[in-house]
Design goal:
6-stranded antiparallel beta sheet, globular, Thiol Ester Dehydrase, Chain A, 6 strands, alpha+beta, 2 helices
């Protein structure tokens, strides 16, 4: 499904402030199941000055964060399940950082929810720059289960 207004609404529910948001838009969303989005590395992000001077690259740990933000948007959009308060990235498995993003690059993100158990969400995520896979990971997100 193309998101249009749904994608904008999905981004608005991210708890991150603008300084720590690594998802510019959600380009497709199947609520509660999977989604795609992107982040453009602008080049003026403060952390790039130190990572690395003269040869800036988007940190791999922030590729993981971007993927987790998209996974959270996907999971929290499920119309059949109430959103979890305080949803956070709590575990990583099988993480492979296979490349880097540089200023001007667009990081294309994909996330798919593969399991849910109470307040835990398992997701698979990938990031690409152009046609090159730069990240693959399995993420666990957790939050506070809504009162029953």
């Amino acid at each position: 499904m193309n998101t249009g207004d749904t994608g904008k609404i999905a981004l608005e529910v991210l708890p991150h402030g603008p300084e720590f948001r690594f998802l510019d838009n959600v380009s497709s969303l199947t609520p509660g199941k999977e989604g795609a989005g992107e982040y453009r590395v602008r080049g003026d992000e403060p952390f790039l000055r130190g990572h690395f001077p003269g040869d800036p690259i988007f940190p791999g740990v922030l590729l993981i964060e971007a993927a987790a933000q998209l996974a959270g948007v996907v999971a929290q959009s499920d119309p059949a399940i109430a959103p979890l308060a305080g949803l956070k990235l709590t575990a990583l498995r099988g993480v492979k950082i296979l490349g880097a993003a540089r200023p001007g690059d667009v990081v294309q993100l994909e996330a798919r929810v593969i399991g849910r158990l109470s307040n835990l969400i398992q997701a698979e995520a990938r990031a690409r720059v152009g046609d090159k896979l730069v990240l693959s990971a399995e993420l666990t997100l957790s939050g506070e289960a809504p009162p029953s």
